[in-house]
Specification:
elongated, mainly alpha
Amino acid sequence: MDLDVYVTAHRAEWERLDHLLRRAGKLTGAEVDELVSLYQRTATHLSIVQSASPDPLLTTGLTQLVARARAAVAGTRRSSWRDAIGFLVAGFPAAVYRSRNWWVPTAVLSTLLAALIGWWIGAHPEVQAAIGASADLREMTRPGGQYETYYSSHPASSFAAQVWTNNARAAAMCLVLGAFLGIPVLWILFANVLNLGVGLGLMSSAGRLDVFLGLILPHGLLELTAVFVAAGTGLRLGWTVIDPGPRTRRAALAERGRAAVGMAIGLALVLFVSGLIEGFVTPSGLPTWARITIGVAAELLFLAYVYVLGGRAARSGDTGDVGEPDRSAALPTAA
């Protein structure tokens, strides 16, 4: 395609569209119809230019023109509390439900790997010696040692805030970095699994596995589930780069990416709950059975939230993506 000829042939239409946009709000009925028609044709022109020419200035200019026209045609909409409620009762759980084929296997394999690492460390003194000096390990695992005092080392409110911030950051990194073929996600996930496995191994070698589980389960069930959801979704996003399916790679990544951003917000709320449990329940004087019961209840409520509300929303067509009016215009594909 001769770009100069193409621009010359259609420049008058683009200039006319720009003129109409500058007069938006003062147009006659015929001019509104003309604006809509010009918007549709210019969107097609942009698609053709993008596929046939690498000219960045022309592409940027047409992109801005199409965006302005779309805003004039479709209008703008302010977010409301109804949007937030809709996200919490449908969008977020639907996105988690739809990605279950990724995060459930991630959770199962990660838990098995943590258990395997814990057994390997607990059954092999030479591995323990490679981790640290025996005196240091005894100090960590003894009654009143570092593993036990960690959860009460700071005031509950500040500790909960710190835990929430760290976990939310890890979850967001899994979701955002998933686009890099999922490789950074695997590293973040392995670091969490390794940390859990080391704790299991060291405390079991000291004969205090029950104490460790009593400390980790109240908050860890919900916390680790959120991390597994983030990791599984990040891996799914990475696979989309490799295999976008029937859609274009750009369209598939845009949809999955927008859903992932929404999930980051939702998981931050989930991790906020687990942070409260870790800050106020885990180090509390409640009996072990009571603390674990609270953790199990929180986990079951989250799973019911995902599989009941999320399953219902997913079956009705909700993908967790933003609504149609808030998406970028889908441009026609040039033949």
